[in-house]
Specification:
This protein has a single domain, classed as Alpha-Beta Complex (paralog of FGE (formylglycine-generating enzyme)). The chain contains three helices and 14 strands. A hairpin with a 2-residue loop joins strand 7 and strand 8. The protein is 9% helix and 16% strand. By secondary structure, the protein is mainly beta. Strands 12-11-9-13 form a four-stranded mixed sheet. A three-stranded antiparallel sheet has the order 1-4-14, covered by helices on one side. Strands 2-3-10 form a three-stranded mixed sheet, covered by helices on one side.
Length: 328
């Protein structure tokens, strides 16, 4: 991979208490995979300019500082308007968010609502519902953030969401076409390298890695670039609209597209063009398991409706080279 020199990144007063962002050298790499889920195909060469990335997902502590500075109110804290959801059950039109709720026994894995519930009063401050708190979770990833929330934070921080290509390049940690962010073996000397699910999802988690939900952002080792939690813990929002299969580029293994941005909003709504526009999530989460969602890999991707927040989706920000000298 061709590397570029890291420009100086100026300090922003709003970020002085945070860890410095990590420089990801630009270069050509193989994005996607031909070996797993259809939406990851085809494996293709892309070229990405160098950029800075948050070393961890945005934490509850960081998000709380943003809210204190701005008075921001997240989407999950606002009751949906009936005119935006014609025909919706009025009981659903309350401030709420989706919380993972383990079922008591085996369920049909084709029906995610068997383990997801809209919980009134669930939001970033109350991740499991109105009686839960952030006690002990300051260094865990913030969750229950919809697209509008993460864009507001990024704007406040003078940053952006990463494109899918940027995110995947950073996640690979300099390892070309490795299965995971740390190599080709899921366990390294018997140790877990990311917060994922162990056991038959969604009813039994053996907790071999010690975590039933999110974990502190630096609990697991960083990848080769020094970036933490690119795999597992929480899914992460990207700037790309969802498209499937991934865009096919003629001669894609020899001719690298530069700084690709995938998808169009009009094409992201799903089958028949119905529903809500969707963005690409990357990285998998603590709910990914071998029997259901083997998406704890850099190439894996998932579609997320832009108006939906959940207990397993977070985000991190990037600053691109052309903005690095502008107060950053």
């Amino acid at each position: 991979m061709a590397h570029s020199r890291a420009p100086r990144l100026k300090t922003n007063a709003r970020r002085q208490a945070d860890e410095a962002r990590i420089w990801i050298p630009g270069g050509v790499f193989t994005m996607g995979s031909d070996d797993h889920y259809p939406e990851e195909r085809p494996a293709r060469k892309v070229s990405v300019d160098g950029f800075w990335i948050d070393p961890t997902p945005v934490t509850n502590r960081q998000f709380a500082r943003f809210v204190r500075d701005t008075g921001y109110v997240t989407l999950a804290e606002i009751a949906p308007r009936a005119e935006d959801y014609p025909g919706a059950d009025p009981r659903m039109l309350v401030a709420s968010s989706m919380v993972f709720t383990p079922p008591p026994g085996p369920v049909d894995l084709r029906h995610p609502l068997s383990w997801w519930a809209f919980v009134p009063g669930a939001d970033w401050r109350h991740p499991q519902g109105p009686r839960s708190t952030l006690d002990g979770l300051d260094d865990h990833p913030v969750v229950h953030v919809a697209l509008t929330d993460v864009l507001a934070y990024a704007d406040w921080a003078g940053a952006s969401l990463p494109t899918e290509a940027e995110w995947e390049l950073a996640a690979r940690g300099g390892l070309e076409s490795a299965e995971f962010a740390w190599g080709d073996e899921f366990l390294v000397e018997g140790q877990h390298m990311a917060n994922t699910w162990q056991g038959p999802f969604p009813q039994i988690n053996s907790l071999d890695d010690g975590w039933s939900r999110t974990s502190p952002v630096r609990h697991y080792p960083p990848n080769g670039y020094g970036v933490y939690d690119m795999i597992g813990n929480t899914w992460e929002w990207t700037a790309d609209w969802w498209s499937t299969p991934a865009p096919k580029i003629e001669g894609s293994m020899c001719c690298a597209a530069r700084n690709p941005v995938g998808g169009q909003e009009r094409d992201s709504f799903g089958p028949d063009g119905l529903g809500i526009a969707r963005k690409v999530l990357k990285g998998g989460s603590h709910l990914c398991a071998p029997n259901y969602c083997r998406r704890y890999r850099p190439a894996a991707r998932h579609a997320q409706p832009v108006d939906t927040s959940t207990s397993h989706v977070g985000f991190r920000c990037v600053v691109r080279q052309e903005r690095a000298g502008d107060g950053r």
